[in-house]
Amino acid sequence: MRKPGWPSNEPHIEQSGFAICVNFGFSISQPFNKSDSYKWKVELKPQNPAIEKQKTKVISYLEAGFNQRKDLCFRIPPFHYQSHEVHLRVRFNRKNAPWSDDEKKLSFTTKASVPDKPPEFLDNGFFFDPQKNEMHVFWLELKELEFNGPNFTYSVATDTGKKPLLKGKSSAVFCDWDLQQPSTILVWSQNSLGRSLESNNRSVPILTNYKRRQPRNLQFHLVDNTLSWDPPLEEKNVTGYYFSLCLEVDMGWRSYVLVMVMGGWDPRMDSMLRAGIGDKQP
């Protein structure tokens, strides 16, 4: 029984939403544009291991959002700027018709988009350093599948337009902080196409009484390598403490932040362990 063959020309791949359509072009020997005459077997292989492999559903060009006929259309996982490989087999739409002898392998990358959302600030995720007059803020990194495009980073500023002195993957440092004024710090996700439409905001109150809310008598004990301190004079609403470590590495210095809440470690601490924010000694 006759089997379909593959055209020699390169197919044209188009994306609409989270659907892909393929056109092989018209040829007398292989008129795929008569889509009802063929059955397709589609195996989609995401190149990012974080994307779960799913059964690929073949759909019509109308379901895919196109007005003109396409040779083949199928659903794809709902992630922007991700590479996929697809393996195709085809047969005539007849009972017991055999599948094509060889596979047709195609590859494509889904369209990029601005990030869908900003990062989330940690609860009470700011710290004022009185010795340097610096404000530190902390957020949770987005997952790679949420980057949506190349050159991903974060954009941070205050409601008055003040920019941070240092910025990392999950933290930023503002210098010359004005203790006399309340402020709002905003953070966006950003890639080459622009930044997220929404920001996450963190309100910082007037900090003229910061000394009453600082831990006291901080001591490091060499015998067992532990830290101890007395609670601040004003303990009301204290939920935990931030610890900043400065480690020397090959290219300079790197800062890390550890978070401890009352009674144990913050379960989101793993993200904070990647919060390198400087290339000089703190």
> Under CATH, the topology of the largest domain is which?
Immunoglobulin-like
Strand order of the largest sheet: 1-2-5-4
Beta-strand proportion: 35-45%
| Overall pLDDT metric | 82
Secondary-structure class? mainly beta
Instruction: State the low-pLDDT regions, or none.
Output: 251-255, 259-282
SSE ordering: EEEEEEEEEEEEEEEEEEEEH
Distance between the termini: 75 Å
CATH level 1 name of the largest domain: Mainly Beta
Q: Report the principal-axis shape.
A: elongated
Number of strands: 20
Number of domains: 2
Q: Could you please describe the fold and organization of this structure?
A:
With 282 residues, the protein is mostly beta strands. The chain has two domains: 12-109, Immunoglobulin-like, CATH 2.60.40; 120-208 and 239-272, Immunoglobulin-like. It has one helix at residues 269-272; strands at residues 12-16, 19-23, 38-46, 58-59, 72-75, 83-92, 104-109, 120-129, 134-140, 153-158, 166-167, 171-174, 183-191, 194-195, 200-204, 216-221, 226-230, 240-249, 252-261, 264-265. The strands form six sheets. It has a four-stranded antiparallel beta sheet with strand order 1-2-5-4, with no helix packed on it. A four-stranded antiparallel beta sheet has the order 8-9-12-11, with no helix packed on it. Strands 10, 13, 14 and 15 form a four-stranded antiparallel beta sheet that branches. Strand 16 and strand 17 form a beta hairpin. The termini are far apart. Mean pLDDT is 82; it is low at 251-255 and 259-282.
